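Tutorial handout. Part one gives the primary structure; part two gives the three-dimensional structure as tokens.
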Amino acid sequence: MTPIISVRDLSKIYASGTAALTSLSLDIREGEILALLGPNGAGKTTFISIVCGLVTPSGGEVRVGGHDIARDFRRARALIGLVPQEISVEAFETVIDTVRFSRGLFGRPRDEAHLEKILKSLTLWDKRDAKINELSGGMKRRVMIAKALSHEPKVLFLDEPTAGVDVNLRREMWQVVRGLREAGVTIILTTHYLAEAEEMADRIGVIDKGRLLLVEDKTKLMHEFGRKRLTVEFIEPIFALPKTLDGHDLDLSDDGLRVSYDYDTRADRTGIAHLLAGFAEAGIAVRDMSTEQSSLEEVFLRLVEENA
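Part two.
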């Protein structure tokens, strides 16, 4: 299947000599949610700005829906909706007029039914005649999303879309995102709420220092790069670990009733069998065991640290 966005050897070097992106290549599938993660200054916003035609690349090629963003800018840009980090709306315009204007900018015919559907999905319909300066920060961010969707784009970029948004609104917004994905819209998001990326994304991309470290299906990424924690609970408290287990990195709880052991899921030998044998040899009775998978945040931090 032809990707909806194809990026080849994309680079951006600013006049100061700062390399914001270096030889970045990436294919984005139609209808997927791709989360781009990276620390501040990693190059995420530069990447989005280039694809959306806001920043000129220093090298490389980008195609959106088969259209080169340099040679066929209008057709490429018409396929894209963008919700930037910064809220930028006309303070004294009404919500409905703001969204109508955005649709008109792309040459789309008037479609009140479509705009009504968008505003209702974002809980903005009751505010359609309110001026932007009368809205809360969260409401203004919803208007930004409505603007980005007004011309029915095939691709939606969400650059930190839930920054400064309360928990309830965040959940509502992700329901909208799921609905868009079900309708076939491709969504690329950046977020500092890694739990959101873990819940929402189909694939995860990690950028650091202008380089794309990897792009992987979320489930596979968690399996390959994640670690697990084994917690062993004892029937009676112990006050020292058996000497035979000195080679293991074990964390004994203050009450002596449990020990935690982190292990790599990719390793040929996890060391768990040796661990349990050591407890048995020492006469330590085990009551229960449980395992916990590392979070996406831990996986992300590990990848960035490895690239430092």
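Part three, for discussion. Residues 5-222 form a domain with the Rossmann fold fold (CATH 3.40.50.300). The chain has a mean pLDDT of 87.
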